[in-house]
Amino acid sequence: xxxxxxxxxxxxxGTIIDSEWFYYKAWKKVLxxxxxxxDSDTWLTSLAGKTDVQAMEVLQGEHGFQTEVEPFLERxxxxxxxxxxxxxxxLMPGAxxxxxxxxxxxxxxxxxxxSKREVATYYLEAHDLMKYFKLxxxxxxxxxxxxxxxPYLMCIAQLGFNKEDCLVLEDSLTGTKAADAAGLTxxxxxxxxxxxxxxxxxxxxxxxxxxxEAIREL
Length: 218
Description:
Elements: E1 7-10, H1 20-33, H2 40-47, H3 52-63, H4 69-86, H5 95-104, E2 108-112, H6 117-126, E3 135-137, H7 150-159, E4 166-170, H8 173-181, E5 185-189, H9 193-196, E6 203-205, H10 208-216
Helix pairs in contact: 1-4, 5-10
């Protein structure tokens, strides 16, 4: 990454919005109905940041959880929809400050997420952040989701910037693998030390407040 930063590519879940525990509650509840106890460590290290289908593959392949996939995922979607009615997923600490600062410095902002477009749009609009983002690349637009590099490569191509002018912000192994495979500079923002240490990235941070200070120093 060059000193002159032209674009920041944000992940959504766990990076901009504090959704990991929101989704964990829903998955934990539904899995319990099937007799499977989902602990927080398994969620954070193996499932967070993945699509529903990818998460099911991990549960089946690594944890021996067996059930009909489609009915199970419909039940998870229903549980999540019910939570949407009850609470708004909050922003990660420092998210709005970082986004508004970058926008004020005329840095182009893009969102690269494994969530569907309607979900990403819902969150950004709910927190009045949509106006800051020039481009959204979601699960809806790509053939291969993270950890495949396609989402980030698509984003870079559409923005028209060189890779050296861009910075990726991610929180999970899935996302950081995608950024690395795309040949992009990636900073990890992860509060859990054992996960943070497992990520192969250019820099690591506890929170977005630290990221803002680091960007100010560029």
